[in-house]
Amino acid sequence: MLDWTDRYCRFFHRLITKRALLYTEMITTGALLHGDRQRFLQFDSSEHPLALQLGGSDPADLAACAKMAEDFGYDEVNLNVGCPSDRVQNGRFGACLMAEPELVAECVAAMRNAVSIPVTVKSRIGIDDRDSYEELAHFIGTVADAGCRTFIVHARKAWLKGLSPKQNREVPPLRYEMVYRLKQDFPPLRIVLNGGITTLEQAEEALRNGVDGVMMGREAYHNPYILAEVDRRLFGMPADAVPRSEIVNRLMPYIERQLAEGVRLHSITRHILGLFHGEPGARSWRRHLSEEAVKYGADTSVVREALKFTAQ
């Protein structure tokens, strides 16, 4: 979710669900060690529970960045070995690391030795022609031996050559059965299913099939109000879903604070375009925000005007 689940997006999503674990976009170790770590790591306290997702392959660098995550107050640090983009491969991190389970285990061990918060791993079910269940189980077992207890598994393999990142999210077939089998073969581990989940019904079915959790990415971004029923249906909380218009009203003070600090309105509103997905006025809501929020000096009045296009 590079360039998507930034702190503005996460604050907005937390207004919709209180219980779902939120993840940052993947941040490279180099960006934290040599860049503006405050900009990358800062977040609003309301975003908890929150996991920092890291990209890297050097155990010492990952340990240092995991310590930063703990010092900043993150609830979990996650190592991404599932992203198949070219720029990730060129940096020797992401999905290409699935070919090196011993290195991933070394990275996890170093991170665990540096922090007390959970260290988790996000992966694919395989890469290229290395996509048998036996190879996946070897990877999981090797990394688990280093102390990782939670694996988020995207149920598609990744083709490192020949497919774009977008195609790698759509072309390789989903093989949920491999993830379900992992849970059967590694019962002490927390296995979280990722990939292709677009409804809460699908999430509930996956949980009935034995996995410990479900990760939802792009659907939650493009249709964020799907999160409104998560707390009640998946966590058993009695609270009713907050109406869409009320979510917008609750977001306003945050937007005003960010504008006062020099943040441009579009940096926030680009994440809320899908809030009225499937509702009357959704297209006008998106169009007004897209056209007006990018203008110099745009403020919360743009959002209030956009809200008038929707059914209240």
TrEMBL record:
Catalyzes the synthesis of 5,6-dihydrouridine (D), a modified base found in the D-loop of most tRNAs, via the reduction of the C5-C6 double bond in target uridines. Specifically modifies U20 and U20a in tRNAs. It is an enzyme of class 1 (oxidoreductase). This is tRNA-dihydrouridine(20/20a) synthase. PANTHER family: FMN-LINKED OXIDOREDUCTASES SUPERFAMILY PROTEIN (PTHR42907:SF1). Residues 1-298 form the DUS-like FMN-binding domain. Its EC number is 1.3.1.91. Keywords: Flavoprotein, FMN, NADP, Nucleotide-binding, Oxidoreductase, RNA-binding, tRNA processing, tRNA-binding. It holds the Pfam family Dus. Its cofactor is FMN. SUPFAM superfamilies: FMN-linked oxidoreductases (SSF51395). It catalyses: 5,6-dihydrouridine(20a) in tRNA + NAD(+) = uridine(20a) in tRNA + NADH + H(+); 5,6-dihydrouridine(20a) in tRNA + NADP(+) = uridine(20a) in tRNA + NADPH + H(+); 5,6-dihydrouridine(20) in tRNA + NAD(+) = uridine(20) in tRNA + NADH + H(+); 5,6-dihydrouridine(20) in tRNA + NADP(+) = uridine(20) in tRNA + NADPH + H(+). It comes from Methylomicrobium album BG8. The active site is at C83. It comes from the Bacteria. The lineage of its organism: Bacteria, Pseudomonadati, Pseudomonadota, Gammaproteobacteria, Methylococcales. The record marks N80, K166, R169, R283, R286 as: Interacts with tRNA. Gene3D superfamilies: 1.20.120.1460, Aldolase class I. The gene is dusA.
